[in-house]
Amino acid sequence: MEVLIFPDAQSLACKSADLVESQIKTFPDSVIGLATGSTPLGLYEELIRRHNENDLSFTGVKTFNLDEYVGIPANHPQSYRTFMDDNFFCKINIDSSNTQVPNGMAENPLDVGPAYEKMIEKAGGIDLQVLGVGTDGHIGFNEPTSSLGSMTRVKTLTKQTIEDNSRFFKPDEFQPKLAITMGIKTILDARRILLLALGENKAEAVKDMIEGPLSSMCPASALQLHQRTTILLDEPAASKLSLKGYYKFVGEMQDDLVRKHRPSDWISR
Ligand code: GLP
Predict the structure, then answer these.
(1) Does the annotation mark 136 as catalytic?
(2) Separation CA 217–CA 98 (nearest Å)
(3) Taking the model in full, what pTM does it have?
(4) Following DSSP, what letter does each residue of 162-198 receive, concatenated?
(5) Is residue 204 annotated as part of the catalytic site, yes or no?
(6) Which of 112, 120, 190, 242 is the most buried (most CB within 10 A)?
(7) Helix, strand or coil for residue 155?
(8) Pocket test for ligand 1, best of 164, 184, 232 (most atoms within 8 A of CB)
(9) Of the listed 67, 68, 127, 189, which one is catalytic?
(10) d(Cα 242, Cα 207) in Å, to the nearest integer?
(11) What is the pLDDT of residues 22-45, one digit of tens each?
């Protein structure tokens, strides 16, 4: 795991956009896995800015979102499809037929996962997966005790996740308790992973993910098994890491080496 610590959300957003941009520029037909939540919004804003100001193009790109609620239609204001359309897809030049979000309104939600896996496979697999992390250590909607070998499927949300996400729903509005999510194995199959975390409320999950034991109690700790994962943190999210000084030291030591010998080291394929 590569751990990068940034002074603020803006510098983190710029660095994550640099990484996504070099992936797309090197392979214009890249397959990118995307996440919802407040954390990647800065990344999406920065990519939109680069699209508008620097002609960064998404015409060849295919995307697969991590997850979607079960039981609300795609055009619901709180659906993840609406979130992605409003915050990203409608503001760049991507063909909507190249953007996939699991169908939370399928007649049989249990059929959605295997079909989603086939679509990812047909697209050639995910080159770069963007992730956030839940306060309980979930990635996608893989809640604690999710199988580390899991594939896309229906999951029941924990009380903590329902509570964390209740801020997006009106008090009397139906809030889904089930979701369809890529599995942990689906995520680990991505060639390159970028996980972003901001704020002190993520510090415990971040510590468990990076320094805790590999355990389904912290699903994000499964990323310890992945060869090419970069974790981008702001200072508050990094505040509980025991080896914080070491990660900064590694960054300083490796920056020059990697820049000189493997300038595009982090690009997948
Ligand atoms: C949801 C999403 C996750 C996301 C998490 C954190 O539960 N399913 O993919 O990482 O929220 O969201 P936020 O970035 O708003 O803290």
Answers:
(1) yes
(2) 34
(3) 0.94
(4) HHHHGGGS-TTS---SEEEE--HHHHHTSSEEEEEE-
(5) no
(6) 190
(7) strand
(8) 164
(9) 67
(10) 8
(11) 999 999 999 999 999 999 999 999
